[in-house]
Amino acid sequence: MAAVLSVPRVASRESSLFPTRDLRLAVRRLNNARRPLDRRRVSPYPFRMHAHFRPPISVLLLTSSLLPLTFSLASPRPNIIVIVADDLGYADVGFNGCKDIPTPNIDSLAQGGARFSNGYVSHAYCSPTRAGLLSGRYQQRFGHEANPTYLPEDTQVGLPVTETLLPKLLADAGYATGAVGKWHLGAATCFRPEARGFAEYYGFLGGGHQYLPQTNKVTGAVADWKVEYAAPLLKNGVEQPFDGYMTDLLSREAAAFVDRHKAAPFFLYLAYNAVHTPLQAPEKYLARLPHIADPRRRTYAAMTVAMDDGVGQVLAALRAGGIEQNTQVWFFSDNGGPPTNVAPTCNAPLRGHKGSLYEGGIRVPFVLRWPAAVKPGTVVDAPVISLDLFATALAVAEAKPAPGKAPDGLSLLPLLKGDASAFDTRVLHWRDGGSKANKWALRQGPWKLVRTGTPEQPQPLELYDLAADVGETRDLAAERPETVARLQKLHDAWNAELVEPLFQSPRPVRKKR
Fold first, then answer.
1. Which of 253, 359, 381, 391 could form an SS bridge with 411, CB 3.0 to 4.6 Å?
2. Residues 162-173: tens digit of each pLDDT
3. Is there a contact between 155 and 190 (Cβ–Cβ < 8 Å)?
Protein backbone atom coordinates (compact mmCIF):
# COMPACT_ATOMS: atom_id res chain seq x y z
CA MET A 1 0.00 0.00 0.00
CA ALA A 2 1.27 3.49 -0.81
CA ALA A 3 2.52 5.58 2.07
CA VAL A 4 -0.16 7.75 3.66
CA LEU A 5 0.58 11.38 4.32
CA SER A 6 -0.09 12.68 7.80
CA VAL A 7 -0.12 16.13 9.31
CA PRO A 8 2.00 16.44 12.46
CA ARG A 9 0.28 17.17 15.71
CA VAL A 10 1.22 20.38 17.49
CA ALA A 11 0.89 21.52 21.05
CA SER A 12 -2.43 23.29 20.82
CA ARG A 13 -5.27 24.20 18.51
CA GLU A 14 -4.46 27.89 18.97
CA SER A 15 -0.99 27.50 17.48
CA SER A 16 -0.62 29.00 14.01
CA LEU A 17 0.96 25.72 12.99
CA PHE A 18 -2.17 23.69 13.76
CA PRO A 19 -3.45 22.39 10.39
CA THR A 20 -6.60 23.98 9.14
CA ARG A 21 -9.61 21.96 8.06
CA ASP A 22 -8.91 22.83 4.41
CA LEU A 23 -5.34 21.57 4.71
CA ARG A 24 -6.51 18.31 6.26
CA LEU A 25 -9.07 17.87 3.51
CA ALA A 26 -6.39 18.49 0.90
CA VAL A 27 -4.10 15.90 2.47
CA ARG A 28 -6.92 13.35 2.56
CA ARG A 29 -7.73 13.99 -1.09
CA LEU A 30 -4.08 13.49 -2.01
CA ASN A 31 -3.93 10.25 -0.04
CA ASN A 32 -7.09 8.98 -1.72
CA ALA A 33 -5.79 9.92 -5.16
CA ARG A 34 -2.56 7.98 -4.58
CA ARG A 35 -4.27 4.86 -3.34
CA PRO A 36 -5.49 2.42 -6.00
CA LEU A 37 -8.84 0.81 -5.32
CA ASP A 38 -9.71 -2.81 -5.95
CA ARG A 39 -13.37 -3.64 -6.30
CA ARG A 40 -15.16 -6.87 -6.89
CA ARG A 41 -18.69 -7.84 -7.86
CA VAL A 42 -20.76 -9.95 -5.51
CA SER A 43 -23.32 -12.39 -6.84
CA PRO A 44 -26.95 -12.41 -5.71
CA TYR A 45 -27.65 -13.90 -2.29
CA PRO A 46 -28.04 -17.68 -2.69
CA PHE A 47 -30.78 -18.21 -0.15
CA ARG A 48 -34.51 -18.05 0.28
CA MET A 49 -35.57 -14.54 1.21
CA HIS A 50 -38.18 -13.13 3.56
CA ALA A 51 -41.03 -11.28 1.86
CA HIS A 52 -39.77 -7.94 3.18
CA PHE A 53 -36.12 -8.62 2.20
CA ARG A 54 -34.95 -7.67 -1.29
CA PRO A 55 -31.16 -7.41 -1.52
CA PRO A 56 -29.70 -5.79 -4.62
CA ILE A 57 -28.77 -7.94 -7.61
CA SER A 58 -25.14 -6.95 -7.23
CA VAL A 59 -23.15 -4.81 -4.82
CA LEU A 60 -19.76 -3.23 -5.34
CA LEU A 61 -17.58 -3.91 -2.32
CA LEU A 62 -14.18 -2.62 -1.36
CA THR A 63 -12.16 -5.62 -0.24
CA SER A 64 -11.20 -5.55 3.42
CA SER A 65 -7.55 -6.08 2.55
CA LEU A 66 -7.41 -2.63 0.96
CA LEU A 67 -9.54 -0.56 3.34
CA PRO A 68 -8.15 2.97 3.56
CA LEU A 69 -7.68 4.67 6.91
CA THR A 70 -6.12 8.12 6.87
CA PHE A 71 -6.50 8.84 10.58
CA SER A 72 -3.48 8.64 12.82
CA LEU A 73 -2.90 9.59 16.43
CA ALA A 74 -1.31 12.76 15.06
CA SER A 75 -4.89 13.93 14.38
CA PRO A 76 -7.17 15.52 16.97
CA ARG A 77 -8.96 12.88 19.01
CA PRO A 78 -12.38 12.12 17.54
CA ASN A 79 -15.75 12.44 19.20
CA ILE A 80 -17.41 9.06 19.71
CA ILE A 81 -21.15 8.41 19.38
CA VAL A 82 -22.52 4.91 19.94
CA ILE A 83 -26.14 4.40 18.86
CA VAL A 84 -27.71 1.11 19.95
CA ALA A 85 -31.07 -0.02 18.62
CA ASP A 86 -33.16 -2.48 20.62
CA ASP A 87 -34.41 -5.72 19.03
CA LEU A 88 -33.95 -4.46 15.47
CA GLY A 89 -34.30 -7.11 12.78
CA TYR A 90 -31.18 -7.84 10.73
CA ALA A 91 -32.98 -7.11 7.46
CA ASP A 92 -35.06 -4.18 8.72
CA VAL A 93 -32.68 -1.48 7.49
CA GLY A 94 -32.13 -0.43 3.91
CA PHE A 95 -28.43 -1.26 3.77
CA ASN A 96 -29.30 -4.88 4.60
CA GLY A 97 -31.96 -5.11 1.92
CA CYS A 98 -35.17 -3.84 3.53
CA LYS A 99 -37.65 -2.41 1.03
CA ASP A 100 -40.77 -1.60 3.04
CA ILE A 101 -39.21 0.48 5.87
CA PRO A 102 -37.36 3.64 4.80
CA THR A 103 -34.21 4.22 6.87
CA PRO A 104 -32.30 6.90 4.93
CA ASN A 105 -30.37 8.30 7.88
CA ILE A 106 -29.21 4.94 9.20
CA ASP A 107 -28.37 3.93 5.63
CA SER A 108 -26.30 7.09 5.25
CA LEU A 109 -23.99 5.80 7.99
CA ALA A 110 -23.23 2.73 5.89
CA GLN A 111 -23.01 4.68 2.65
CA GLY A 112 -20.72 7.27 4.21
CA GLY A 113 -18.57 4.86 6.21
CA ALA A 114 -17.97 1.17 6.83
CA ARG A 115 -20.51 -1.64 6.96
CA PHE A 116 -19.37 -4.72 8.85
CA SER A 117 -21.02 -7.63 7.06
CA ASN A 118 -20.03 -10.04 9.84
CA GLY A 119 -20.83 -7.79 12.78
CA TYR A 120 -21.83 -9.47 16.05
CA VAL A 121 -22.87 -8.61 19.58
CA SER A 122 -21.64 -10.56 22.59
CA HIS A 123 -25.02 -11.93 23.67
CA ALA A 124 -28.42 -12.79 22.23
CA TYR A 125 -30.40 -10.35 24.37
CA CYS A 126 -30.46 -6.92 25.87
CA SER A 127 -28.57 -6.36 29.11
CA PRO A 128 -25.62 -8.76 28.73
CA THR A 129 -24.74 -7.20 25.36
CA ARG A 130 -24.71 -3.75 26.98
CA ALA A 131 -22.56 -5.00 29.86
CA GLY A 132 -20.03 -6.38 27.39
CA LEU A 133 -20.09 -3.24 25.26
CA LEU A 134 -19.36 -0.83 28.11
CA SER A 135 -16.87 -3.05 29.95
CA GLY A 136 -15.03 -4.26 26.86
CA ARG A 137 -15.00 -7.77 28.29
CA TYR A 138 -17.11 -10.85 27.83
CA GLN A 139 -19.84 -10.27 30.39
CA GLN A 140 -19.63 -13.90 31.49
CA ARG A 141 -16.27 -13.05 33.09
CA PHE A 142 -18.08 -11.09 35.80
CA GLY A 143 -21.40 -12.91 35.99
CA HIS A 144 -23.62 -10.57 33.98
CA GLU A 145 -25.19 -13.27 31.84
CA ALA A 146 -28.86 -12.37 32.21
CA ASN A 147 -31.26 -9.44 32.22
CA PRO A 148 -31.42 -7.88 35.70
CA THR A 149 -34.80 -7.54 37.38
CA TYR A 150 -35.85 -3.92 37.98
CA LEU A 151 -35.04 -3.64 41.69
CA PRO A 152 -33.98 -0.10 42.71
CA GLU A 153 -33.11 -1.24 46.24
CA ASP A 154 -31.06 -4.30 45.28
CA THR A 155 -27.31 -3.67 45.10
CA GLN A 156 -26.55 -7.16 43.80
CA VAL A 157 -28.57 -7.19 40.59
CA GLY A 158 -26.67 -5.15 38.02
CA LEU A 159 -23.34 -4.70 36.26
CA PRO A 160 -20.81 -5.34 39.06
CA VAL A 161 -19.13 -2.20 40.35
CA THR A 162 -15.81 -4.04 40.16
CA GLU A 163 -15.87 -3.34 36.41
CA THR A 164 -14.49 -0.02 35.16
CA LEU A 165 -16.61 1.12 32.24
CA LEU A 166 -15.71 2.94 29.04
CA PRO A 167 -17.21 6.32 30.06
CA LYS A 168 -15.03 6.43 33.18
CA LEU A 169 -11.88 5.69 31.19
CA LEU A 170 -12.78 8.28 28.55
CA ALA A 171 -13.68 10.87 31.17
CA ASP A 172 -10.28 10.34 32.78
CA ALA A 173 -8.77 10.95 29.33
CA GLY A 174 -10.51 14.32 29.02
CA TYR A 175 -13.75 13.40 27.23
CA ALA A 176 -17.17 14.80 28.11
CA THR A 177 -19.46 11.82 28.67
CA GLY A 178 -23.20 11.44 28.35
CA ALA A 179 -25.78 8.66 28.11
CA VAL A 180 -29.30 8.92 26.73
CA GLY A 181 -32.00 6.27 26.79
CA LYS A 182 -32.33 2.74 28.07
CA TRP A 183 -29.90 1.73 30.83
CA HIS A 184 -30.84 -1.84 31.89
CA LEU A 185 -27.64 -2.45 33.85
CA GLY A 186 -29.09 -2.23 37.36
CA ALA A 187 -31.53 0.21 38.94
CA ALA A 188 -29.85 0.68 42.35
CA THR A 189 -27.96 3.92 42.87
CA CYS A 190 -24.56 2.20 42.72
CA PHE A 191 -25.30 0.87 39.21
CA ARG A 192 -26.72 4.02 37.66
CA PRO A 193 -25.02 5.88 34.78
CA GLU A 194 -23.83 8.76 36.95
CA ALA A 195 -21.98 6.28 39.18
CA ARG A 196 -20.31 4.54 36.23
CA GLY A 197 -18.60 7.44 34.49
CA PHE A 198 -21.36 9.32 32.68
CA ALA A 199 -21.38 12.98 33.68
CA GLU A 200 -24.83 13.44 32.14
CA TYR A 201 -27.77 11.08 31.80
CA TYR A 202 -31.30 11.31 30.46
CA GLY A 203 -33.47 8.21 30.21
CA PHE A 204 -34.96 5.34 32.16
CA LEU A 205 -33.23 2.68 34.21
CA GLY A 206 -35.12 -0.46 33.26
CA GLY A 207 -35.18 -2.76 30.26
CA GLY A 208 -38.10 -1.12 28.50
CA HIS A 209 -40.69 1.63 28.71
CA GLN A 210 -44.00 2.82 27.37
CA TYR A 211 -43.57 5.09 24.35
CA LEU A 212 -46.62 7.31 24.78
CA PRO A 213 -47.61 9.29 27.89
CA GLN A 214 -51.22 8.12 27.74
CA THR A 215 -50.09 4.48 28.05
CA ASN A 216 -47.74 5.15 30.98
CA LYS A 217 -50.03 3.80 33.68
CA VAL A 218 -49.86 0.83 36.02
CA THR A 219 -53.27 -0.84 35.99
CA GLY A 220 -54.57 -4.14 37.20
CA ALA A 221 -52.22 -6.53 39.02
CA VAL A 222 -48.88 -4.80 39.65
CA ALA A 223 -46.35 -7.02 37.89
CA ASP A 224 -42.64 -6.14 37.90
CA TRP A 225 -42.63 -5.35 34.17
CA LYS A 226 -45.54 -2.92 34.60
CA VAL A 227 -43.63 -0.95 37.23
CA GLU A 228 -40.47 -1.06 35.12
CA TYR A 229 -42.17 0.10 31.93
CA ALA A 230 -43.85 3.01 33.75
CA ALA A 231 -40.74 4.09 35.68
CA PRO A 232 -39.97 7.82 35.67
CA LEU A 233 -37.77 9.50 33.13
CA LEU A 234 -34.65 10.85 34.82
CA LYS A 235 -32.25 13.65 33.95
CA ASN A 236 -29.13 13.59 36.09
CA GLY A 237 -31.11 11.90 38.85
CA VAL A 238 -34.11 14.26 38.75
CA GLU A 239 -37.51 13.08 37.52
CA GLN A 240 -38.64 14.62 34.24
CA PRO A 241 -42.05 15.04 32.63
CA PHE A 242 -43.02 12.39 30.10
CA ASP A 243 -44.42 14.82 27.55
CA GLY A 244 -43.89 13.30 24.12
CA TYR A 245 -43.14 10.20 22.10
CA MET A 246 -40.26 8.43 23.84
CA THR A 247 -38.06 8.04 20.76
CA ASP A 248 -38.45 11.75 19.97
CA LEU A 249 -37.51 12.72 23.52
CA LEU A 250 -34.34 10.63 23.42
CA SER A 251 -33.33 12.02 20.03
CA ARG A 252 -33.88 15.58 21.21
CA GLU A 253 -31.68 15.06 24.27
CA ALA A 254 -28.93 13.38 22.23
CA ALA A 255 -28.81 16.25 19.73
CA ALA A 256 -28.72 18.76 22.59
CA PHE A 257 -25.77 16.94 24.16
CA VAL A 258 -23.86 17.18 20.86
CA ASP A 259 -24.58 20.92 20.68
CA ARG A 260 -23.43 21.52 24.27
CA HIS A 261 -20.14 19.69 23.83
CA LYS A 262 -19.13 20.51 20.26
CA ALA A 263 -16.03 22.38 21.44
CA ALA A 264 -14.38 19.41 23.16
CA PRO A 265 -14.05 15.68 22.53
CA PHE A 266 -17.10 13.81 23.80
CA PHE A 267 -18.51 10.32 24.17
CA LEU A 268 -22.26 9.93 23.71
CA TYR A 269 -24.02 6.62 24.32
CA LEU A 270 -27.49 6.78 22.74
CA ALA A 271 -29.43 3.65 23.62
CA TYR A 272 -32.90 3.68 22.07
CA ASN A 273 -35.57 1.35 23.42
CA ALA A 274 -36.92 1.34 19.86
CA VAL A 275 -37.92 -0.99 18.40
CA HIS A 276 -38.50 -3.16 21.48
CA THR A 277 -42.10 -3.92 22.44
CA PRO A 278 -44.66 -2.58 23.27
CA LEU A 279 -45.51 -1.78 19.67
CA GLN A 280 -46.59 1.86 19.91
CA ALA A 281 -46.28 4.73 17.44
CA PRO A 282 -48.05 8.07 16.96
CA GLU A 283 -50.05 8.85 13.86
CA LYS A 284 -47.40 11.20 12.44
CA TYR A 285 -45.14 8.19 11.84
CA LEU A 286 -47.87 5.71 10.92
CA ALA A 287 -49.12 8.11 8.25
CA ARG A 288 -45.80 7.88 6.42
CA LEU A 289 -46.26 4.15 5.80
CA PRO A 290 -49.59 3.68 4.01
CA HIS A 291 -48.05 0.98 1.81
CA ILE A 292 -47.77 -1.47 4.73
CA ALA A 293 -51.11 -3.24 5.18
CA ASP A 294 -50.28 -5.42 8.20
CA PRO A 295 -51.04 -3.22 11.24
CA ARG A 296 -48.34 -4.82 13.42
CA ARG A 297 -45.66 -4.50 10.75
CA ARG A 298 -46.80 -0.94 10.08
CA THR A 299 -46.47 0.03 13.75
CA TYR A 300 -43.07 -1.63 14.01
CA ALA A 301 -42.02 0.19 10.83
CA ALA A 302 -43.25 3.50 12.24
CA MET A 303 -41.13 2.93 15.35
CA THR A 304 -38.13 2.26 13.11
CA VAL A 305 -38.80 5.40 11.08
CA ALA A 306 -38.95 7.45 14.29
CA MET A 307 -35.57 6.09 15.33
CA ASP A 308 -34.16 6.81 11.87
CA ASP A 309 -35.40 10.39 12.12
CA GLY A 310 -33.63 10.61 15.48
CA VAL A 311 -30.36 9.43 13.96
CA GLY A 312 -30.81 12.14 11.35
CA GLN A 313 -31.34 14.71 14.11
CA VAL A 314 -28.04 13.73 15.74
CA LEU A 315 -26.22 13.88 12.39
CA ALA A 316 -27.71 17.34 11.75
CA ALA A 317 -26.36 18.50 15.12
CA LEU A 318 -22.89 17.29 14.10
CA ARG A 319 -23.08 19.20 10.82
CA ALA A 320 -24.38 22.34 12.50
CA GLY A 321 -21.51 22.22 14.98
CA GLY A 322 -18.91 21.74 12.26
CA ILE A 323 -17.70 18.50 13.87
CA GLU A 324 -19.07 15.87 11.51
CA GLN A 325 -15.72 15.00 9.92
CA ASN A 326 -13.90 13.83 13.03
CA THR A 327 -16.79 12.15 14.84
CA GLN A 328 -17.18 8.40 14.95
CA VAL A 329 -20.82 7.32 14.71
CA TRP A 330 -21.38 3.64 15.47
CA PHE A 331 -24.75 1.97 14.96
CA PHE A 332 -25.84 -1.57 15.73
CA SER A 333 -28.62 -3.51 17.47
CA ASP A 334 -28.24 -5.11 20.88
CA ASN A 335 -29.36 -8.48 19.45
CA GLY A 336 -31.35 -9.89 16.58
CA GLY A 337 -35.03 -9.29 16.04
CA PRO A 338 -37.37 -11.32 18.27
CA PRO A 339 -39.61 -14.08 16.89
CA THR A 340 -42.50 -12.84 14.84
CA ASN A 341 -45.10 -13.76 17.45
CA VAL A 342 -43.45 -11.11 19.65
CA ALA A 343 -42.69 -8.47 17.00
CA PRO A 344 -42.93 -8.51 13.18
CA THR A 345 -39.19 -8.35 12.56
CA CYS A 346 -37.16 -9.80 9.70
CA ASN A 347 -33.77 -11.46 10.23
CA ALA A 348 -33.43 -12.88 6.71
CA PRO A 349 -31.32 -14.60 5.53
CA LEU A 350 -30.25 -15.63 9.01
CA ARG A 351 -31.58 -18.51 11.09
CA GLY A 352 -33.00 -17.85 14.51
CA HIS A 353 -33.96 -14.74 16.46
CA LYS A 354 -33.36 -12.87 19.70
CA GLY A 355 -32.38 -15.32 22.43
CA SER A 356 -30.92 -17.80 19.93
CA LEU A 357 -27.22 -18.40 19.35
CA TYR A 358 -27.84 -19.05 15.68
CA GLU A 359 -26.87 -16.10 13.51
CA GLY A 360 -30.29 -14.46 13.76
CA GLY A 361 -29.80 -13.88 17.47
CA ILE A 362 -26.28 -12.44 17.46
CA ARG A 363 -25.38 -11.08 13.99
CA VAL A 364 -26.73 -7.55 13.67
CA PRO A 365 -26.71 -4.47 11.42
CA PHE A 366 -23.31 -2.95 12.30
CA VAL A 367 -21.81 0.25 10.84
CA LEU A 368 -19.23 2.95 11.58
CA ARG A 369 -19.16 6.33 9.92
CA TRP A 370 -16.02 8.42 10.49
CA PRO A 371 -15.49 10.77 7.52
CA ALA A 372 -12.00 11.86 8.60
CA ALA A 373 -10.76 8.30 8.50
CA VAL A 374 -13.01 5.79 6.74
CA LYS A 375 -13.75 5.91 3.04
CA PRO A 376 -17.47 5.97 2.10
CA GLY A 377 -18.93 2.68 0.95
CA THR A 378 -16.35 0.53 2.71
CA VAL A 379 -17.42 -3.05 3.45
CA VAL A 380 -15.51 -5.08 6.03
CA ASP A 381 -15.99 -8.84 5.78
CA ALA A 382 -13.78 -9.88 8.72
CA PRO A 383 -15.81 -10.96 11.79
CA VAL A 384 -16.03 -8.21 14.41
CA ILE A 385 -17.93 -7.95 17.67
CA SER A 386 -19.38 -5.13 19.78
CA LEU A 387 -16.55 -5.70 22.29
CA ASP A 388 -14.18 -4.27 19.67
CA LEU A 389 -15.72 -0.84 20.05
CA PHE A 390 -14.23 -0.53 23.57
CA ALA A 391 -10.70 -1.28 22.41
CA THR A 392 -11.08 1.01 19.38
CA ALA A 393 -12.34 3.88 21.53
CA LEU A 394 -9.43 3.56 23.94
CA ALA A 395 -7.00 3.59 21.02
CA VAL A 396 -8.32 6.79 19.44
CA ALA A 397 -8.75 8.51 22.83
CA GLU A 398 -5.21 7.56 23.89
CA ALA A 399 -6.67 5.96 27.02
CA LYS A 400 -5.81 2.72 28.81
CA PRO A 401 -7.95 -0.02 30.33
CA ALA A 402 -8.15 -0.45 34.09
CA PRO A 403 -5.39 -2.61 35.60
CA GLY A 404 -6.24 -6.30 35.44
CA LYS A 405 -9.17 -5.70 33.07
CA ALA A 406 -7.68 -6.42 29.67
CA PRO A 407 -10.29 -5.96 26.91
CA ASP A 408 -11.54 -9.05 25.09
CA GLY A 409 -12.16 -7.04 21.94
CA LEU A 410 -9.63 -5.84 19.40
CA SER A 411 -9.01 -2.33 18.17
CA LEU A 412 -10.42 -2.06 14.66
CA LEU A 413 -7.84 0.53 13.61
CA PRO A 414 -5.42 -2.05 12.14
CA LEU A 415 -8.30 -3.69 10.28
CA LEU A 416 -9.41 -0.36 8.87
CA LYS A 417 -5.82 0.28 7.77
CA GLY A 418 -5.87 -2.99 5.82
CA ASP A 419 -4.18 -5.28 8.34
CA ALA A 420 -6.58 -8.18 8.97
CA SER A 421 -3.95 -10.55 10.38
CA ALA A 422 -5.30 -10.43 13.93
CA PHE A 423 -8.81 -11.10 12.69
CA ASP A 424 -8.13 -14.09 10.44
CA THR A 425 -7.79 -16.56 13.30
CA ARG A 426 -9.59 -14.80 16.16
CA VAL A 427 -12.24 -16.75 18.04
CA LEU A 428 -15.58 -15.22 18.98
CA HIS A 429 -17.48 -16.80 21.87
CA TRP A 430 -21.03 -16.86 23.20
CA ARG A 431 -22.58 -18.52 26.25
CA ASP A 432 -26.03 -18.19 27.78
CA GLY A 433 -27.12 -19.51 31.16
CA GLY A 434 -23.87 -20.56 32.79
CA SER A 435 -21.33 -23.31 32.31
CA LYS A 436 -23.80 -26.18 32.55
CA ALA A 437 -26.61 -24.71 30.48
CA ASN A 438 -25.54 -26.43 27.23
CA LYS A 439 -26.19 -23.25 25.29
CA TRP A 440 -23.07 -21.84 23.66
CA ALA A 441 -21.44 -21.11 20.33
CA LEU A 442 -18.13 -19.98 18.87
CA ARG A 443 -16.86 -18.82 15.53
CA GLN A 444 -13.36 -19.01 14.05
CA GLY A 445 -12.89 -18.07 10.43
CA PRO A 446 -15.87 -19.45 8.50
CA TRP A 447 -16.58 -22.17 11.08
CA LYS A 448 -19.38 -21.87 13.62
CA LEU A 449 -19.90 -24.50 16.34
CA VAL A 450 -23.23 -24.42 18.18
CA ARG A 451 -24.57 -26.28 21.20
CA THR A 452 -28.26 -26.00 22.00
CA GLY A 453 -30.52 -27.68 24.51
CA THR A 454 -30.93 -27.61 28.26
CA PRO A 455 -28.81 -28.85 31.19
CA GLU A 456 -30.99 -31.95 31.30
CA GLN A 457 -31.23 -32.49 27.54
CA PRO A 458 -28.18 -31.28 25.59
CA GLN A 459 -28.45 -31.49 21.84
CA PRO A 460 -25.66 -32.76 19.57
CA LEU A 461 -23.05 -30.24 18.49
CA GLU A 462 -23.75 -28.53 15.16
CA LEU A 463 -21.10 -27.24 12.76
CA TYR A 464 -21.70 -24.72 9.99
CA ASP A 465 -19.55 -23.18 7.27
CA LEU A 466 -20.84 -19.60 7.30
CA ALA A 467 -18.92 -18.66 4.17
CA ALA A 468 -21.04 -21.08 2.17
CA ASP A 469 -24.13 -21.36 4.38
CA VAL A 470 -24.96 -18.14 6.22
CA GLY A 471 -28.45 -19.48 6.93
CA GLU A 472 -27.03 -22.44 8.92
CA THR A 473 -29.04 -24.99 7.01
CA ARG A 474 -26.44 -27.76 6.59
CA ASP A 475 -24.89 -29.29 9.71
CA LEU A 476 -21.38 -30.54 8.87
CA ALA A 477 -20.51 -31.97 12.29
CA ALA A 478 -20.65 -35.58 11.13
CA GLU A 479 -18.51 -34.83 8.07
CA ARG A 480 -15.79 -32.86 9.90
CA PRO A 481 -15.28 -34.38 13.36
CA GLU A 482 -11.72 -33.01 13.56
CA THR A 483 -13.02 -29.44 13.18
CA VAL A 484 -15.66 -30.07 15.83
CA ALA A 485 -13.03 -31.41 18.24
CA ARG A 486 -10.70 -28.48 17.65
CA LEU A 487 -13.40 -25.88 18.21
CA GLN A 488 -14.74 -27.75 21.24
CA LYS A 489 -11.30 -27.42 22.87
CA LEU A 490 -11.29 -23.69 22.23
CA HIS A 491 -14.69 -23.35 23.88
CA ASP A 492 -13.69 -25.48 26.86
CA ALA A 493 -10.59 -23.36 27.49
CA TRP A 494 -12.61 -20.13 27.35
CA ASN A 495 -15.44 -21.53 29.45
CA ALA A 496 -12.96 -22.46 32.20
CA GLU A 497 -12.07 -18.76 32.58
CA LEU A 498 -15.65 -17.66 33.31
CA VAL A 499 -17.79 -17.39 36.43
CA GLU A 500 -21.37 -18.49 36.97
CA PRO A 501 -24.20 -15.97 36.55
CA LEU A 502 -24.70 -13.63 39.51
CA PHE A 503 -28.45 -13.37 38.83
CA GLN A 504 -31.11 -14.81 36.54
CA SER A 505 -33.44 -13.06 34.15
CA PRO A 506 -36.93 -12.37 35.52
CA ARG A 507 -39.46 -14.93 34.38
CA PRO A 508 -42.89 -13.76 33.20
CA VAL A 509 -45.84 -14.87 35.30
CA ARG A 510 -47.90 -17.47 33.45
CA LYS A 511 -51.61 -16.81 33.24
CA LYS A 512 -53.81 -19.33 35.00
CA ARG A 513 -56.12 -21.25 32.73
1. 391
2. 999 999 999 999
3. yes
